[in-house]
Amino acid sequence: MLKIHGLKKKFGNFEALRGLDMEVEEGALYGFVGPNGAGKTTAIKIMAGLLKPDEGSVEICGKDALRFREEAKDQFGYVPDEFGMYDNLKVREYMEFFASCYGLSGLMGRKRCEELLDQVKLSDRADFFVDSLSRGMKQRLCLARALIHDPGLLILDEPTSGMDPRTRMEFKEMLKELCAEGKTILVSSHILSELSQMCTDIGIIDAGKIVLSGNMAEILQKVNDSNPLLIRICGESRTAIGILKKDPRVQTIAIRDEDIIVNFHGNRQAEAELLYSLMEAGIPVSGFIREQGDLESIFMQITSHDKGKVVLSSEE
Ligand SMILES: Nc1ncnc2c1ncn2[C@@H]1O[C@H](COP(=O)(O)OP(=O)(O)OP(=O)(O)O)[C@@H](O)[C@H]1O
């Protein structure tokens, strides 16, 4: 649905994008995450045709979006990180104005606007001035506007920043519903935990490059596989430690309270073999589990340098 290859962008001597590659599959809810200043907005503006890259390509629905900008525009809806000023427009007028930009006017246009305002739960605000809406409502209105021409792809730049936790949750539910209806969604944030529960795929950008990407469940599995095994033995653990030491996949062994903490390089089959070797030796194993994956600590590790501040919880 969206393919980005080798995207580079300099502002003066500063390289904001340094060869960005990413791919968003059709039907994905793709989280585009990175610390402040990583290059998310720059990349998104290039995708949306608002900024020209120095190098690289953007393909939307198989078409070169940098060359065929008008055609590409019909394929996606864009929600920017900052909302423009529309102090003289009421919500309904705002929607109808954008509908007319896509050739939807008269009864058809009004009907489409009503449907969308209903979908983003703003029907009761149709006669309010846009400027009187809260930030969360403005973002929902922006989402409705981006959906006017029924695009297959939605690109949202930090849509939930500045929202309170409840409004965030509702907005995220809305995105999940849209994804379930068949939309492909790219949503950016500098808060990993914000996206990790709802996204099917994730791309972590740091200093203008993707540093980790893939299917969310697979990444979590990989993180899990690199976490230590926690083994609990009923009684003394000396014999168990002797067996563990003999296994070449065991890297380190430590004791924490009642648990033996084992850094173990192996998949589930290998874990089962290790457990079997303990059981076969008659060791009463009462616990055998991988420590739970902590995606956020990975995010911290790969994006931690002085210039970027990473916010890990939704309580900013
Ligand atoms: N027009 C510009 N002129 C000069 N530098 C710019 C310009 N736009 C962006 N930058 C710089 O490029 C880098 C990437 O900025 P960008 O806004 O893309 O980051 P971001 O990941 O969206 O950050 P945030 O999470 O804070 O919104 C930053 O160092 C920023 O200062």
From TrEMBL:
The keyword Glycoprotein does not apply. Keywords: ATP-binding, Nucleotide-binding, Transport. Residues 2-232 form the ABC transporter domain. Gene3D superfamilies: P-loop containing nucleotide triphosphate hydrolases. SUPFAM superfamilies: P-loop containing nucleoside triphosphate hydrolases. Belongs to the ABC transporter superfamily. This is ABC transporter ATP-binding protein. It comes from Enterocloster hominis.
